[in-house]
Amino acid sequence: MNISRRSFAALAGATSLTLATPALLRAQSAGRLVVIGGGFGGASAARYARMAFPDVDVTLVEPQTSFVTCPYGNLILGGKRVLSDITHSYDGLRARGVNVIHDRAQDIDADGHRVTLANGEELEYDKLIVSPGIGFRWDAIEGYDEAAAEVFPHAWTGGDGSQISNLRQQLEEMPQGGVVGLSIPGNPFRCPPGPYERISMIAHYLKQANPTAKIMAFDSKDAFSKQGLFQDAWEELYGDMIEWVPGNADGKIVRVDAENKVFFSEFGEEHRVDVGNVIPPQMAASLAHDAGLVNDSGWVPVDQTTFESAVARDVHVIGDANIASPMPKSGYIANSTAKTAVAAALSDLTGSGAPSDPVYFNTCYSHAGEDYSFSVVGVFRPDGGEIVETPDSGGTSARGPLTELAETRRLEAGYADAWYDSITDDMFS
Amino acid sequence: MKKLALVLGFAMTFGTFQMANAQEAAPMIAQSCAGCHGQAGAGQGSSPVLAGYDAEDFVRVWHEFRANERPATIMNRIAPGFTDDEVAELAAYFASLQQGE
Ligand SMILES: Cc1cc2nc3c(=O)[nH]c(=O)nc-3n(C[C@H](O)[C@H](O)[C@H](O)COP(=O)(O)OP(=O)(O)OC[C@H]3O[C@@H](n4cnc5c(N)ncnc54)[C@H](O)[C@@H]3O)c2cc1C
Fold first, then answer.
1. Which residues of A touch B80 (CB under 8 A)?
2. If you average pLDDT over residues A322-349, what whole number do you get?
3. Which of A61, A67, A106, B21 is paired with A92 by a 20 to 30 Å CA distance?
4. What is the ipTM of this complex?
5. How many domains does chain B have?
6. Which one of B25, B34, B86 has the shortest CB-CB distance to A422?
């Protein structure tokens, strides 16, 4: 479309035509769905909407021109993937007829059914799906701000890929025998097993490139996801390279000094590190706050069947930003709930009937080393306004000695790759 | 003139996706399988093909997974999460797909 932004905005203003609703086509369309955020929740929603509801106009708003996944980012640290392997184009969604706009959504006017973009344009919608992911609580760890995140990268959002690349480069440049420090937040946060997969993949790399290095993992918690499986793997594969310091052993980091590369614990211990990875405490992304969708917890309360916001009609919030415990904040849950949310949102526009007994599905594979992976699975259903895990199903891979389980761990590494390729196809193909 | 160009631009975009949209969405209950078994049960890497799976075999295999009577890394944890009615719906859907479709 070769029309300048300014003249477009003028035109849109003059004719009250918006990007999502070319006047000519509105008559033929069952309605206008706008999706904010082109990640696990948003891309899945836009794609599924085009497939299941071809009469609906779909517009996706996402500032990045390609999407870098957090899943498999840890494999970059381990030297098993490069950035281009985890970077995905929006062309597949465009080919399905999604109108992809690369800009940031600035605000939502739920009463007026309008989204304002950073460039000032406005999009009208009938239904809105919001999946903006997480934001960081920059005030939670003293001294950790956006400048400090260049020294101690979080690498906890994909963004333009620079965070994960920065961390990988620092690991490569670390002196022999150096110390890698991680700071790990309390619950809830994005991807509960993610920090521990990261520890494993860093150890996998260091074992080859820097075998006398140490990893100090400072945790705000006393326990973590798939803990037994991870700790077995660390012992089996990395000897004493990894030290995990739980919250009850003063593991909580409350202050950092990026200039001198020091972590400070709650009770005043100072830890000098050569490379630091600070995963800060989290909340829903800023848009959810600016649009007034969050409650005191900093996350977005939603109906547990339709994912409609508790405070804004026709606004459905999915992915990490919402409150849907006991489901984890995972890419698979964002993908799975995206489809239910789309079907619920579009049911009255298309007369299709809302999904009656939805099932939400999660799997998180973790890579602990070469040919060494394991998983956690959960099948969830809404029940009386809450979400419950289906009894006697799901759970983690079996624990046991590697001599017995080596083949299972190897098979799961292959199935993890199949998962990555499948889920990203289900978002972008 | 500008308005016309804009509308034409949209009309063209809209025209191309009619074709790309030929593939239908799977029923809701089968959506989560696409996260490992690929699109429309086509399989992905080492994850098995489900398209064209005989419906009776499917139900039998599912019960074996549920009872831990079939070698599995993960389906033995997934299978107990679905009811018999849901399994029947899954079996019918995957049986209805052509392999390699
Ligand atoms: C290291 C790591 C490993 C992980 N591994 C796994 C795994 O193996 N399996 C798994 O299931 N999950 C995994 N996850 C979790 C997964 O990445 C998240 O749960 C998932 O990305 C959540 O999807 P989302 O749509 O909520 O957010 P995202 O995928 O982050 O997408 C949000 C999008 O919204 C955009 N956005 C934000 N604000 C705006 C705005 N105002 N306007 C427009 N766009 C906006 C962002 O640019 C972004 O593209 C991992 C996470 C990490 C950090």
1. 390, 392-393
2. 97
3. A106
4. 0.90
5. 1
6. B34
